[in-house]
Amino acid sequence: MITLHGGSWGARDIQRDPFVSAYPRATAIPTTPPEPTTRCQAAPFRSTCVSLIHLFTPPATPDIEGARGSDPRKPCSNVTEISSPATTLHSLPTPPATSATCLIVGDHYSTSLYAHHLPDEDPLASFERDDAFISTLTIDEKIGEGSYGLIYCGSVTGGKFFAIKLMKKTGDAEQDSVFQEEIDAMERAVESDWAVKLKYWRYSETHVLIAMSLFSGGNLYDYAKTQRSFEPDLAIFWAAEILLGLHSLHTLGIIHRDIKPENVMLDVSGHIKIIDFGLAKLFDHNSVSREDYPLFHSLKKTGGDLFPQIWALDSNPHTTAEPFGTQGFAPPELWQRRHYSFGVDYFAMSCVLYELLTGKLPFAYDSATDNYDVMNIAVDLDETLPDVQRDFLRKTLIPNPVLRPSVSHMKRHLLFKNINWHALARCELDPPISF
């Protein structure tokens, strides 16, 4: 059992679908906000009855039957995905017996880390082997699966290993567009030192193949639950790296929209890498009219922490009201179908930090309905956190998005007093652990 300022990661130790763990497809937030709860209390720890894709039971969705049996609000014990054209629910039946307990993808590969589940047929059968990469690519084993396809460990001549994501095409134009948007986001994210690297992608008549870098450290969730204790300095260090990683993506015009512990991997040195761009939103900084948005161009020219703007203001051309995110890490404005911008990623970052420090989610919990109220943020109600940590989290998780601090204000907060931002950006600082 792992005690985290009163929180417990040990309670969350359940067997999970490895694809869902490391490359999950998050829930599209329902168009109707959940009914506010009236009997709220501090949120409980993530337990064995909590979905590990979104970390609490989603509101009931009447148009999808059977997702959670007769009671769509009732949580269960394991994770899988149920899809419809309109939305995706995550129910919790038992995963296949052949699944690995977690997906660990990294620069160094060890066969002992994976369940030995060799594919029943050649996953590359639909692809012509007419280029240098795919002609030498060997699929070693399946290491995960999800609603959109499978993840394999693959290798090429020379012994280099990759995570191979193989998705089946259905002929639906909207689904094909989703696949291409993920590829577009990964291609752009290659310029960030903090993101997974896209190595190769290709379409066949029936499949989409994406090859990406592997990371050996697992993800934040997996690391946290294996530790006897979790040092706050380590959580703060990783939060600082996530902050830098998100800002680097934002300067490239990418809103990630799915930041959570399962989507933050660790490399062999213990530094973070952001994965899963399946929900990413892309904007083109270079297409913005100088006449219509003079402040945008002024901030772009100045650069640094002030660009891009993170709030959905009239002076910000890059806003959206698309209801996509992960419940438990998405801010209230997404539930309300209000416009938002890059700032939603920093809200999710603070939710990750809060969970690492407390083992809980920063939302009120109604024991009568056994459900979280995602419109009611509750940060450290029992005041067990140190003042500096509580102050940072309450400011970054405040319900009104325009009152949340800027990147520069977050970096200057006392929470990060021991962080040399210039050195961290150059990866010259080591995590405060032996990794």
Q: Given the helix and strand composition, which structural class is it?
A: alpha+beta
Q: What fraction of residues sit in β-strands?
A: 15-25%
* Sequence of secondary-structure elements: EEHEEEHEEEHEEHHEEEEHHHEEHHH
Per DSSP, the total helix count is 11
Helicity, as a percent range: 10-25%
Distance between the termini: 21 Å
* CATH superfamily membership of one domain: Transferase(Phosphotransferase) domain 1
Q: Give the radius of gyration.
A: 21 Å
Question: Can you summarize the main beta sheet?
Answer: 5 strands, antiparallel
Shape-level CATH architecture of one domain: Orthogonal Bundle
The spatial strand order of the largest sheet comes to 6-7-8-10-9
Describe the global form.
globular
Low-confidence stretches: 1-45, 47-118
Mean pLDDT: 76
Number of strands: 16
The CATH topology name of one domain reads Transferase(Phosphotransferase), domain 1
By CATH reckoning, the class of one domain would read Mainly Alpha
